[in-house]
Each structure stands twice: as C-alpha cells, then as structure tokens.
Specification:
The chain is an alpha+beta fold and 725 residues long. Helix content is 18%, strand content 32%. The strands form nine sheets. The protein has a nine-stranded mixed sheet, sandwiched between helices. Strands 4, 5, 6, 7 and 8 form a five-stranded antiparallel sheet that branches. Strands 9-10-11-12 form a four-stranded antiparallel sheet, with no helix packed on it. The chain is globular, with a radius of gyration of 25 Å. The two termini are 27 Å apart. 50% of the residues are buried.
Amino acid sequence: MAISTDDSDDPYLWLEDLDGPEATTWVRDRNAETVAALTGGPTFAARQAGIRQVLDAEDRIPYPGWRGDGFYYDLWRDAAHPRGLWRRTTLDQYRRPEPEWDVLLDLDALARTEGENWVWGGVTTLPPQHRRCLISLSRGGADAVVVREYDLADRTFVDGGFTVPEAKTDVCWIDADHIWIGTDLGPGSLTDSGYPRVVLRWRRGTSLTDAEVVYEASTVDVGAYGWRDPTPGFERDFVSRSLDFYRSESFLLTGAGQRVRIPVPEDAEWGVRREWLLVQPRTPWPVGDLTHPAGALLAIRFDDFLTGARDFDVLFRPDEHTSLGGSAWTRNHLILTTLTDVRSRLELLTPGEHGWRREPLPGVPVDEESCLVETDPDRDDSYLVASEGFLQPATLRLGRLGGGAETLKRAPAFFDTDGLAVRQFFATSADGTPVPYFVVGDPAAPAGPTLLHGYGGFEVSLTPGYDGIIGRGWLARGGSYAVANIRGGGEYGPRWHRAALREHRPRAYADFAAVATDLVTRGITTPAMLGIEGGSNGGLLMGAMLTRYPSLVGAVVANVPLLDMRRYHRLLAGASWIAEYGDPDVAEDWAYLREYSPYHNVRGEVRYPPVLFVTSTRDDRVHPGHARKMTARLREHGHDVSYYENVEGGHGAAANNEQRAFIEAMSLEFLWRKLAPSADSVPAQAVGGGSGSSSTTTTGVPGRTFSSSRRWPLAVNRMQPFVVC
C-alpha cells in the first residue's frame, strides 16, 4: 500500500537546497564553529602534519594497473601533484627503487590551463594497441564526469574525438570508431536513480543525438549499460538492465542484431571469459535434480549453456565459516580468493579435460595473509599479490605460474608497533549470532580510548589492512582500534548480507552494539572511552547507534551518511538502494524504516554522545542534506553536535591529500578530545616509522585489498557500473 508523499512536516527540508543562500549560510556558520573548536592548537597541527606525511610519502607503493600492453600504469598524488599524475613505466623500471615514469597526463597542469577543478575519474583504453583512451574527469570529485578521448602517443586530447558533457556516464570501447555509451540525453533518458536508461552505439564523427539506440530500460530500473568483451577470438557484445541493485537481465547481441537472453538467475553475478561462463548465485538455484547454494561459484562453457547445457563444474561451495571473496582470470587459469572467518586464502584453478585442477597459488607465502591485486588475462599468466595486515605494511609481489614470486615493492612503516597485537574475538549478538571483530592495540594496557569502525551493508567485507593514518593518528597515541564484521556485509557470503537486508537491517545495529559491549566486557575500553566511526551506509550505522544505543559509546563520527530514511530514495542515487533498505513510499516498508531512521528518532529527553558529521557539497551520491538536516535537528534539541562540509570531494569527502589530511585529523582530534580522560593519561609513542618486528598477532592477520580498511566502498564490480552508498 502506498503512503502519502507529503513532506510538509519536515522543518529542515530547505537544507536539501545545495546552493540556496539560506542553506549556504547555515553550512558556512557550522563549518566555522567546527573548525574553530577542533583545529586550533599544536596537537591538531602535529596530527594533520603526520597524516599528510603518510598520504604524500614518496616511498609508498605505487600500486599499478595492467591494461594488456605490458606497461605498469599508476595515478600518483603527492604534495607537488595534489590532483595527480597519470603515468606508466616498464617492469624493468618498476623494479627499481626510483623508477623512471612516463607521464601521460598531468592533472594539475590541465586544471590550471583549463581553469577547472579536475579530479581523476578513471580511464578505459582501446585494445590491443592501447593508444587511444577515454578519460573521465570529475569536477570536485563528484560521480558525474566529463569524458574526453585522449591519444597516449601524442599526449593530447583528440580533436573531434569522442567527448561527453558532464553526466553519470558509462562508456566502453567497441572498436576504434565505435563506443557503447549511456549518458544524460535530456528529459526521459535517466532512471529514477539518476543513471542512464538508454544504451547507444555511437560512431565516430557523428553527433551523439544521432547515435543508434540499441537498448532501453524502464525508468524504475536502476539503469542500463552495454559493454564489449574484446578477447581475441571471443569478441562479444552485451547489454544489461539492472532491475534493482541485486537483480539484472542481460543479453548477448548477435551479429544479426538479435538479443539472446543470458538465462542465469536475475540475482546472480556472472561473467564470461573466453569459452567459460562463471555464475555465482545470491540465492539457492535449483538446476535439474541439484540445488546450488547461494555463494557458490559455478563454471560451464558459455556456448553450451546458451544451447541448454546445465552440467556445471562447482568451483567453490560455501560453508558456515567460508565464503568466496572474489575471482580473477589469468590467461589460462582462474584465481580464487576465499575468506574463512575473515582469513584469506588464494587458490589456483586450472581447467582440463577431466575437470578443474585445484592447488594453492604458487609463490604466495604460506605464513602471510595475501590478496590479489591484478592480473592481465589478455597477455599471460602473471599476477600481482599484496600481503599486509593491521600491523604489517604491504609487500607487493609479482607471481608467475611455474616461476614463483618476485618481491617488487615494500611499503614503509608509518608507526611503531612495539607492544601492539592483533586479536580476533567473537561477540554474541542479541539473537545469539556470533559476530567476529578485530582489535589492534596493547593487550596489556588498561581500558582506554578505543575507535570501532563498521559498515554492514551491500555484501561488502571489511578485511584487515595497514592504515598509516590510524597508526599515526590513533594507535601511536595509545588508543586501540577495532573493526566489526557485522551482518549486512559479505564476510560470510550472501547469507550474511541477507540476514540484515530490508526489514532485518536492525540486526546489523544489534551486531555492532554487541561488539561495543564485548569491548567493554573484555576490559579493552569503557562506554565513555569508546568512539565509533563509519561512512556512507556506515554513516547510517553511526546514526542508528547514536539514536538506538546512545549509552554504549562516548563519541560518534559519521562520514557522508544516510540519515533520513523517509526521503533517501528521492535524493540523488538513493532510489538505486531500495533493494537494500526498502521503499519508504510503501506503507509496510516505511513501518520498519521509521523505527530506525536516525533523522526521525532524535529525542530531546535522551542524552546522546557527542557526534561529528562530515560530508561534501559535491557528493552526488549521498545527498549532504542527510547530514545537514540531522545536525539541525540535534541542535534544535540542544545536543552536542559538530558539522563540517567540504565544498568538494564527492562521496569520498576529499578531493586531494591536503583535504583528506585535514578531515582525518579533525575527526581524530574530535574523538580523542571526547574520549581520552586527559592528554597525559594515555601513553603515546613518538610519531614516525617503526620496525614492527616485535609486534604480536594472536590469531593471524587476514589479508585484504591494499586500500585503507576505513574507506567505504565506492563500486560494486566490473560488470556493474552503479555504486553503493
């Protein structure tokens, strides 16, 4: 049953007007208050400087991308190049301590020349020569981008080449003269979620308005997109529409112009590589006399599948403790990443006449937790693997099947780990579910300031990684750091996610509350010294903890958060997340959303812990109105609330290292002031690099991707251009 859409009872609706004069003045005043309160004094300056050193460190690993041409590509930002250098080098050069890089595009120089606030938005190159590419440039870090064709040999944008005005655009090369494109074509061309509804085949030298319409989705779908598999000998074109965030319908385009439905379950993830189709169902999939479990990985020859064959090879089957973390092809093999109680393992699978051979991935140290960084399936069977942990800076290795692994780079240590340990515990949630979490800190220390991070949504796993910002800004001051693997995430596969989906979302909050309670029970902290932090969907988690469990924590930081669950689906990309949260315009859904929507559950008589909201005016994914309105409502009731809105930065809230260092330092300063009993009560380390040689690990440190564990996710997968919150 539909409910009224009248929002006249929302007294702070005017704060959703991004650039309205009244809202702009309000933001300026709140920013001034927060900056004045938190950024004065030597401790903030020292913390900010230490974080900036981490972000700009010249000896950090330049993680490369492979594109099929043998080069190592990288986007590099430092103090001299805050917007970044897009560059590449050879393997021989990359091996050196200081490689010679070939700069392809200097974004700082481009921004100065064009008078634009350009932020790198990504690139796609044209195989097999990889001379031409389509570069995406964002104004201020927004999801919307300008797309421009670039020539890597001439180092110039192509005169008369493919150019697309600012929009949430999806592009893919077909050949040198054609691309697949979905973009804003004017009224009726976008879905309710703000993504392209129409897929076009655009020919070079013609107007975009004259491009061939190949496929159209409905406005109530999340979006539509087209793409090409350019693998030599297996070239194929596809179009898809996303029915919601987890369900899609996809077609193979034939040379005769027909669309052949790919008959996999709507909620399954799938991909084609050479002759193979891989399918990972999100819910149990009955096939003949068998039912394949959710989270399994199945393989079959693609052409056979289209003609009716269903004799899948089961490459992975989940259990109560183990889930599939990901898969990636090399030229002749498939690499699987699995998680067992959030502990990673890499396996090599090889197809043959008698099935698939399975073995540990060669060259990966058995005593280290590792994750796959890159493969180059069009070229060879090489792979890049990174090994790291909470207290272990990353080591990047180049693996070759049959040839072991070569260490290419080692990341620097940014803080002293003497006396620190990593421990894994399991808290018991309200319904009896064991919830894993990690704690980093001194196990012999008395209860002290502790920062707990969480996300719990969109089947995204939080796996441990080395974070120099947390190390310098928190651990080095004597604090402890914890990461909660709550339901809604993907640590135990689709079932862990579904357990907190839609009306079950409060289970994620109960899990986080159980971890907070367990930290106190174990003597690691006290409620008054426990801070919590999360961004995006994790910001919604923070808002729910603030309003549902205020007595459990001493301070809260929420970054780019969702908070108004009555209007989230009407703001920017919010409609694309209805499958995750529910539809507020349906009475049955609003009945449960209303129970936890933070904006609708602020009470004047309840004592809340102090909270800091951080957002960005240029965030075109989660509207800054969420944080603005929540701040205004808390202020109305006299609660301790701080607010900071960066004028740029998009969903990451910062467009460069200077902005990020300022925001990170301000957040940690806020937490330390609220949680530490006094400046001298917690022993601090000297800020700087440390050996890490005497640290201990109680349970081992599971591997993870090489980005910070505190960054909220920004994308789903290669086949799905829509983004999580």
